[in-house]
Amino acid sequence: MVEVADTGLSNHSADAATLVADVEALGDRLRQVRDSIGRVIFGQQAVVDHTLITLLSGGHALLVGLPGLGKTKLVETLGAVLGLDAKRVQFTPDLMPADIIGSEVLEEGEAGRRAFRFLPGPVFCQLLMADEINRASPRTQSALLQAMQEQRVAVAGVAHPLPAPFHVLATQNPIEQEGTYPLPEAQLDRFLLEVEIGYPDEAAERAMLLATTGAREAKPVQALSAGELMAAQALIRRIPVGESVLDAILTLVRGARPEGSPIEAVRRQLAWGPGPRAAQALMLATRARAVLDGRLAPSVEDVLALAEPVLRHRMALTFSARADGVQLADVITTLKDRIA
């Protein structure tokens, strides 16, 4: 009997076939998710897709838009469709960190013994809507942003882990800035994407009027569970990324740093640029976008499509550039032109 050495090629092929099957199955489930969301949210497909990309990447999103454009409805719908425990906190100037993360109370037992008991705050959920986050004080903002980064909170020296998965969708009004505390640049970096929400087009607004002012209003149907979402997040990280995509990400992110950018206009117009976390966000988000579109691997087009929501909140213009009317979108377009 002749023994044949195992080269490992068969195992590699089996692993690749399994990965392809898993990605295709996830794509089918995500189509069901989008269909379920589409019954409730009208004319905001890009917003829905960017929010789903954020959740599939395991990150948090900053939703920027005027009042009445469906930000709260979107978060409620996502919680129902994805099977997540969702909560909402209205941020106000008098909101304290304990109002979000929780606090300890002194209780007396039957034997007369006193002990402290931790009462968890609303941050102990799977999907938290931080409504108008820039209205809270910097101290309260920091408490939430620390929880976002560390996935736990510490009260009286005791760490309490947050539920898994844990995602924050924070909203911000871009117009009304009186009485607000803008998020510091270092804290903005905690958000994977900044999602801009605009007005729906006429056809979508017409459909929304007909669907939401009748005797019955459509309800979102659960299409995924929390466990399945976590499995999807793990699968996203296994998707291979080609060298061309990796090069595009590095070219885009490193070119947006004024200290070493090869573009003279960028060096002149930007005060500071994105750090390595932006490149990490693009790597994950491009994979998630590919799966959401039913593809097995990301492309350079995914990098270009996600460049603005990933980079916009991680860059700042110089005073002279703002005085000249330069917009961050213009700078990002210049950066993308080097790749396209």
From TrEMBL:
Concerning its family, UniProt says:
Belongs to the MoxR family.
Q: Which UniProt keywords apply?
A: ATP-binding, Nucleotide-binding
Q: What is this protein called?
A: MoxR-like ATPase
Entry-linked Pfam families:
AAA_3, AAA_lid_2
Top-rank lineage group of the source organism? Bacteria
- Cleaved signal peptide residues: none
What InterPro entries would the database entry show?
AAA+_ATPase, ATPase_AAA-3, CbbQ/NirQ/NorQ/GpvN, ChlI/MoxR_AAA_lid, P-loop_NTPase
This entry's Gene Ontology molecular function terms read: ATP binding; ATP hydrolysis activity
Which CDD domains does this chain map to? AAA
Q: Which residues form the AAA+ ATPase domain?
A: 57-201
